[in-house]
C-alpha cells in the first residue's frame, strides 16, 4: 500500500473514492465545479491510499481554517475531513496509516493543532482527538412559543428584515466573520466556501430565507438562516448575532412566524438564555445533544500559550500521546491571563491523554469532569479545581460550521 499526496488532477478519483467509502454517489457539480459540498476541497492538502494493485482505497484531506480561542486570539488550523476507507479494505491498517502520515505532514507544516467533526465518536480518540465543543437541537411547538414580555429598560430596538439568501450572501458572510472572531470554538468560513457555494447552508446554494437584524442605527447585527418543510415545520440552520439583543430579536421573529407547526433550532448552544425567555419554560424540547468540534494538539507548548486563561496559577501536566509514541511533562504557569509552558521534571498535578487535553483545551469540558470519568488522574486534592478555574472560558465554546 502507498499513501501519497494528491493534486488537482486527482480530484475526481478522490471524490469518487470518498463517496464509495460511505456507500453513496456524488451529485454532479455545476459547470464551473461549484455548488456541491466538496467544491472547496484543497487538492494539495489531500491524501490518497492506493493498494498494491494501484486501486484507490482510502482518502483524507484538510481544509485551511482559523480557530478562535478563549480570549479572542485566532490560530490557523487544518480541518480534517473526507476520511474514509473502502469497505473492502477496512480493518487492514489503512486508516491508521493515513492518520499517522497526516499528523506527520501537519507537524512538518508547523501546525499546532488539528480539528475535525467525527462521523463516529469511537474512531478518533485513538488518534489523539478529543471532543471540545458540543451542540444540540431545541424544538418549540408554535402554540407554546410565546416569549415573556421584556422588562423595563430591555425593550427591543432595531428591526428584522426578511431576505432571500441569494440576495444577501455577501452580508451574511461579513456578519459570520465578525461573529466567529469573538466566539471561542468557532472556525472561519474562507472566501472559497462562499464563492464555490460549498458545504451546508448558508454557504451552500440551497434556497433559504434570511431574517436580518439591524440595530437602532440600521447597522446589521445578526441573521437567522431558515427554511420550512412541507409539514410547515421550521428548521433554523443557524442564528448568528453580535450581541444578545440581536439574538433575542431574531428568536422572537422565528418563534412568532405564522402558519408554522414547530420551530427547530438546529445548533442550540449550551448556556443559551432562550429557554428562560420562553413564557413556558418547558415548551422547548432539547434533543440530539452531541459532540461537534474535536481538537488534536500537535505542539502542546504553543497551543497552551496561544489562548488566554481565566485564572492565574500553576499546573504540571503529564501528557501521554500513545499514537505518536510520546510522553511529555509541561509546567503551565499563568499570570494575568497569559501562559508560559516549559518542560519540567516536577511531579505532575494531572496525568492525561493528549485526547483529553484536546477536550479541555477550549474550556467546553471541565477537567474535573474527566477526572470523575476516570480519564484524567489528579495527583493532588486541589488539582482538578485549580485546572477547572484556569481552563474555563468566559464564553462557552461553540462551533456552527460543518466541513
TrEMBL record:
InterPro entries assigned: Acetyltransf_17, Acetyltransferase_Eis, Acyl_CoA_acyltransferase, Eis_dom, GNAT_dom, NAcTrfase_Eis, SCP2_sterol-bd_dom_sf
PROSITE patterns: GNAT
Any GO BP: aminoglycoside antibiotic catabolic process
Transmembrane segments: none
Gene Ontology MF terms: aminoglycoside N-acetyltransferase activity
Domain N-acetyltransferase: 1-150
Residue numbers binding acetyl-CoA: 83-85, 91-96, 119-120
Highest taxon above the source species: Bacteria
Presence of the UniProt keyword rRNA processing in the record: no
Assembly mode: Homohexamer; trimer of dimers.
Annotated family: Belongs to the acetyltransferase Eis family.
The protein's name: Acetyltransferase
Organism (species): Kitasatospora cheerisanensis KCTC 2395
Upper taxonomic lineage: Bacteria, Bacillati, Actinomycetota, Actinomycetes, Kitasatosporales
